[in-house]
Amino acid sequence: MKQEFFDRIQSYIPEEYDAFLQCFEKEMFKGLRVNTKKIDLEMFTKQFPYIGAPSPFCKEGFYIEKNLGNHPYHFAGLYYLQEPSASSAVTILNVQENDIVLDLCSAPGGKSTQIAASLGKEGFLVSNEYDSKRAQILLSNMERLGVMNVLITNSNTKVLCTEFSECFDKVLVDAPCSGEGMIKKHDAAGDNWSVENIEFCAARQKEILQDAYKALRKDGILVYSTCTYAKEENEDVIRWFVENYPDMEVIDPGVSFGREGLDLPFARRIFPMDQGEGHFICKLRKNGGGISSFKTVKSAKLDKYATSFLNEQMEKDDYYYSIQKDKVYMMQAPFIDVKKVKVVRQGTLVGETIKTRFEPSHAFYLNRESKFKNMVDLNVEEMDLFLHGNQISKPCKKGYVAVCVEGHPFGFGKSDGNVIKNKIPKGLRLLEGVHILK
Fold first, then answer.
1. Fewer CB atoms inside 10 A, N or C side of the chain?
2. 57 CB-near residues (< 8 Å, 6+ apart)
3. Dihedral (CA of 127, 128, 134, 139) sign
4. In angstroms, what CA-CA distances link 62 with 102, 124, 254?
5. Residue range 42-74, pLDDT digits in tens
6. Tens-digit pLDDT profile for residues 386-437
7. Residue range 207-260, pLDDT digits in tens
8. Using H for helix, E for strand and C for coil, what is the string for 12-75?
């Protein structure tokens, strides 16, 4: 790492510079955030033995010591692995059940899934990711954590925010940055460090904020965050923003974690000494502008095959449906009429009609809102076999069945009454030699 980086840090926190260096030499903080969309927080803490101290940044967050990516609960989407302080921005955003929210730079999905966990049936989330490969990672995480009322887009921020001008109660801009707070995790962040890159990132961040401004309603809340220490990408960007958009007001974030910004009191900074990696968060309110709403479309009429499947699989509930090229999607909120924006997914993919039958999707069985009629619990050994692509001998009702761990679906199969044929997508199966953590 270049000495210039450390000199800059010393100029920010001269009295704590030695403490920073000591923390910088230690491993990154590890953490998870419980997905309360799928499991009650109190129940999770009683059942899960691997969590450590609670996170100060999010009431659903905990520190952990080991990698828990192969635990049964992870496959079922009961938690998201996340560096603890990464949850701070959504805590400050303070999402309410009926909010209409935009996460403008959302891959890999930690903050979007955190937002979704706070939304109710009438709330809605638009999660955008400009990079198409990262948008697919975002989609995978949203599916695993069972998010339904969502529009996932892969669009230029200017196009997106113009299309949805003044539609959002809350906007999160977790801006692409130089990533100084991730240097311990990603070698490239240190290898590619330069003041020129910081300046490049700051210019891009200003462009994104200009677009975000368009999307925000009057009296709406915008939270800007980065995972870098660089003042040019943090306080300087915010000062530029409020100078050029005088109806944007920096407001009290309402939290005690971290510390004040550099000459920007209501902003929050998190250093490793604060029990998290490098983060900057600032909360703003838009005092001008107007209020617009999405254009919605009528719920689609399902064919007899999709209707029969849903009647067999789910308890009846009120859903909206969309059909695209024989594929059926469902949400609790009306579908949005999207024309200029590139859509990755809107709602939950239920499955598709193929000739005279309906083939369900993996995502459907991970959806928290569905109350399945046909479910079967697997023990850890059976789950391990199933996630490796094997069929399981297990008496149950014939037909498609949600396979579960302790009542929480992690996929599905098709049963003849005695044997469950595996329907886990090949790309999501465990590799040979990799096993579930007991």
1. C
2. 84, 85, 86, 87, 88, 91, 257, 270, 276
3. positive
4. 26, 26, 21
5. 999 999 999 999 999 999 999 999 999 999 999
6. 999 999 999 999 999 999 999 999 999 999 999 999 999 999 999 988 899 8
7. 999 999 999 999 999 999 999 999 999 999 999 999 999 999 999 999 999 999
8. HCHHHHHHHHHHHCCCCCCEEEECCCCCCHHHHHHHCCCEEEECCCCCCEEEECCCCCCCHHHH
DSSP code per residue over 344-372: EEESEEEEEEETTEEEE-HHHHH-TT--B
SS3 at position 76 = coil
In this predicted structure, what is the pLDDT of residue 1? 67
Which residue in the list 177, 227, 282, 404 is annotated as catalytic?
227
- Distance (Å, rounded) from C-alpha 84 to C-alpha 62? 7
Per-residue pLDDT for 363 more than 90?
Answer: yes
- pLDDT digit string (tens) for 302-341? 999 999 999 999 887 789 999 999 999 999 999 999 988 9
Q: Decide: helix, strand or coil at residue 391.
A: coil
Radius of gyration of the chain from its Cα atoms, rounded to whole angstroms: 23
User: Residue 259: how many CA atoms within 13 Å on its side-chain side?
Assistant: 15
- Judge whether 94 and 252 are in contact, CB under 8 Å: no
Tell me the C-alpha distance between 163 and 18, whole Å. Answer: 49
Q: How far is CA 224 from the centre of its chain?
A: 16
- What is the rounded distance in angstroms from the CA atom of residue 131 to the CA atom of residue 154? 7
pLDDT tens by residue, 188-198: 667 788 999 99
Amino acid at 150: V
364 within 8 A of 349, measured Cβ to Cβ: yes
Residues 6+ apart with CB under 8 A from 96: 118, 123
Helix (H) / strand (E) element for 335: namely none
* Strands 168-174 and 150-153, sheet pairing: unpaired
Which DSSP symbol is given to 301?
P
Q: How wide is the angle at C-alpha 417 spanned by C-alphas 414 and 422, nearest 5°?
A: 25
The candidate with the shortest Cα–Cα distance to 416, out of 396, 402, 387, is: 396
DSSP 302: P
Cα 144 to Cα 94: distance, rounded to the nearest angstrom? 23
- As a whole number of angstroms, the distance between CA 413 and CA 419 comes to 9
Whether 8 contacts 178, CB under 8 Å: no
Residue 105 appears among annotated catalytic residues: no
